[in-house]
Design a protein that fits this description.
Shape: globular
Radius of gyration: 15 Å
Strand order of the largest sheet: 1-2-5-4-3
Structural class: alpha+beta
Distance between the termini: 38 Å
Low-confidence stretches: none
Mean pLDDT: 89
């Protein structure tokens, strides 16, 4: 069996502060996360070192709609990477999410400055709410 074709570089961004509630985001191309995980781990290695543990807060990623869908989960999909003593939580943006919202989420989760034209857009505010939900889910006893 041959390796699946790569669709492009991993769309993952890490924030400056890996200890932030949400320390980055990953926007996979497909729901076949295992196929794309090596690229994410390579990017993580450059940022935080060799990943020794991975934890997720979902059971079937295939069933998760886009984060811009009315049916999106109350708790956004998160993946926690552990590398040595560093723990980084990434927002995992389902591939069904509109690319415009995903781009803003990648920027916000990694603390990258957004263009002024986006700061007051509906998508920017939606991204803020999604990241607030993610951070809140991490601080709750069930999170």
């Amino acid at each position: 069996m041959s390796a699946p074709p790569l669709l492009g570089p991993p769309r993952v961004r890490f924030g400056i502060d890996p200890s932030a509630a949400v320390g980055g985001a990953w926007y996979p191309y497909t729901v076949q996360l295992a196929d794309e995980l090596p690229g994410v781990l390579a990017a993580a290695r450059a940022q935080i070192g060799d990943v020794t543990g991975i934890d997720v807060n979902w059971q079937s990623f295939r069933r998760i709609p886009g984060l811009d869908s009315p049916d999106s989960p109350m708790t956004p999909p998160l993946m926690t990477l552990t590398a040595g003593g560093i723990v980084v939580t990434l927002l995992v943006i389902p591939p069904r999410t509109a690319s415009s919202l995903a781009a803003i989420l990648l920027r916000q989760a990694s603390n990258t400055v957004a263009p002024d034209s986006q700061l007051h857009s509906l998508e920017f505010r939606r991204a803020e709410r999604i990241l607030e939900l993610a951070a809140r889910s991490l601080s709750s006893p069930a999170g």
